[in-house]
Amino acid sequence: IYTLSLHDALPIWSALRFYKEELDQKESELTASGQQNERIAAELAEREKTLEEREKTFNNLQKKYDDKEVNIEQIATRLYNMPPAAAVQELVAMDDQLVIDVLRKEEEMATTKKQYSMTSYWLSLMPAERAAAVQRKMVSKPKALD
Question: What's the rounded Cα separation, in Å, for the pair 122 and 85?
Fold first, then answer.
């Protein structure tokens, strides 16, 4: 059995103490790094959640727009197939923006199908003031805005 004298043990204790200090420093660095990683992960999760909410909102708006377009196309088709006087009665009952959307859709559909558009005729059958108001708004509002 080998026994160490106090004189022989001091350098070993000193080395062990130094090694322990190094390990403590590495542990605190790892803890700090882990905490920073957790913060970054939480921030990324929040960003992902925000992006998902934006995508959901965008998809809902797109669906709403698509649904509106389908409805306007159905109205334009129905009006096109009605007697003009009856179609004008329905148009007069609508608000101006819907009339504009329907007239534009009817013109677009007529162009696509290579048919005559009823828009001019319908406007001619409308009360003059209403037809003028609708036409004024059609000119001032570009097609791209909704």
Answer: 8
- State phi, psi for 68 to the nearest 5 degrees: -65, -45
Cβ atoms of 72 and 105 closer than 8 Å: yes
Contacts of 116 (CB under 8 A, 6+ apart): 110
Integer Cα distance of 48 and 45 in angstroms: 5
Q: Which residues of 19-28 are buried (b: 16+ CB within 10 A; e: fewer)?
A: eeeeeeeeee
Beta-carbon contacts of residue 101 (< 8 Å; ≥ 6 apart): 72
Distance CA 41, CA 7 (A): 52
With beta carbons less than 8 A apart as the criterion, state whether 103 and 133 touch: no
25-79 pLDDT tens trace:
999 999 999 999 999 999 999 999 999 999 999 999 999 888 899 999 999 999 9
Which of 107, 132, 136 lies closest to 119, judged by CA? 107
Q: Give the side-chain half-sphere CA count within 13 A for 98.
A: 14
